[in-house]
Design goal:
Blueprint (H helix, E strand, L loop, with lengths): L1 H17 L6 E6 L4 E6 L4 E7 L4 E6 L5 E6 L4 E6 L5 E5 L5 E6 L5 E5 L4 E6 L4 E7 L4 E6 L5 E6 L4 E6 L4 E7 L4 E6 L5 E6 L4 E6 L4 E7 L10 E3 L5 E5 L5 E6 L5 E6 L4 E6 L5 E6 L4 E6 L4 E7 L4 E7 L1
Antiparallel strand pairs: 1-2, 1-28, 2-3, 4-5, 5-6, 6-7, 8-9, 9-10, 10-11, 12-13, 13-14, 14-15, 16-17, 17-18, 18-19, 20-21, 21-22, 22-23, 24-25, 25-26, 26-27
């Protein structure tokens, strides 16, 4: 009995050390201000602004939600911020021009190096690049599968999505997509992936097992430039930012038919959805704001002023 209690106590200690309590902070990279805005997502109030480095863009949280990573493309670095204290705790060197990245379930970062047509795999514990993978020209969006067995990266000038096997760190498939792919997201079970194409003005669904596109949908909205993609927790609704159109397009995730649109700020770029799917946050570059969208009503309920040209968003909830 004592041994069982000891084991249970050990499990509790491990779980509490691995998973941090949420701060409910929304983090926003401001490309021209060289800052990160920190917002209390429960109130919409700006808590503070972090001077982070030159040209911050991509942003994401570690699997345990304790560390915030920010791609500082103007410094060829990725900054690490303690989510609880908001202190900068270090910088990683992932190679030239790190535009954006995604974080593998094991904690490693898969970083797109746009100028060098490659993906760098960075171990944040050692701070070292442990693998480099050649891909197409101008890679930008990256997505790690929920199971971690593959990573997708899209090359904007080659118009391809590359499938990387994470056990070998080899490209195992190249899928031709619409012109200038800009957004990638997996379904919750990892069987499907969605890719948006800015110039092609479309969204496509990729069957991961078959390694091919199984459906495409044209985006028929004036001035639309398909950008970031976010999938609802139940995998039924796909949210897509549209750049110059200043709208979020709400699509049926199975048919890719347009359900509705939500007006947000100018040149809407990055987006993140709350864990329960009730609230969508968008970075509005030219408006220098973040929009707070109630997904039930499809209405923007708040505009929060941030720095100059907000690009990416991450939510600790």
């Amino acid at each position: 009995m004592k041994l069982k209690q000891l084991l249970l106590s050990s499990l509790v200690l491990v779980s509490t050390s691995v998973w941090a309590d949420p701060t409910y902070r929304l983090f926003v990279t401001n490309e021209k201000s060289d800052t990160v805005s920190v917002i209390d997502s429960r109130t919409g109030i700006l808590e503070t602004t972090i001077e982070i480095g030159k040209r911050p863009r991509g942003i994401g949280l570690s699997p345990d939600q304790k560390i915030l990573y920010i791609a500082i493309s103007g410094e060829d670095a990725i900054a690490m911020v303690d989510v609880a204290t908001l202190e900068i705790i270090g910088k990683l060197e992932p190679g030239d021009d790190p535009e954006t990245f995604d974080i593998h379930p094991n904690g490693n970062l898969y970083v797109s190096n746009e100028d060098d047509a490659k993906v760098s795999v960075v171990n944040p514990e050692s701070g070292k690049v442990i693998h480099e993978i050649k891909v197409g020209l101008e890679p930008e969006p990256v997505a790690a599968s929920p199971t971690g067995d593959i990573v997708l990266v899209a090359s904007e000038s080659t118009n391809m999505v590359h499938i990387i096997d994470t056990s070998t760190h080899k490209v195992v498939a190249n899928i031709l997509v619409g012109a200038r792919p800009r957004g990638l997201v997996f379904s919750s079970d990892g069987s499907l992936a969605y890719v948006s194409s800015e110039i092609g003005n479309e969204v496509a669904i990729i069957d991961i097992e078959k390694r091919k596109i199984i459906k495409k949908g044209a985006i028929d909205l004036p001035k639309a430039k398909p950008m970031a993609l976010v999938l609802s927790p139940d995998d039924k609704v796909l949210y897509m930012t549209t750049g110059r159109a200043g709208k979020v397009a709400v699509l049926d995730a199975e048919t890719l038919e347009l359900i509705s649109t939500t007006d947000v700020g100018k040149r809407v770029w990055g987006a993140v959805l709350s864990r329960d799917g009730s609230t969508l946050y968008t970075a509005n570059g030219v408006s220098h704001t973040v929009s707070v969208v109630d997904t039930a009503t499809g209405k923007s309920t708040m505009e929060i002023e941030v720095g100059q040209f907000p690009w990416g968003v991450a939510l600790d909830d």
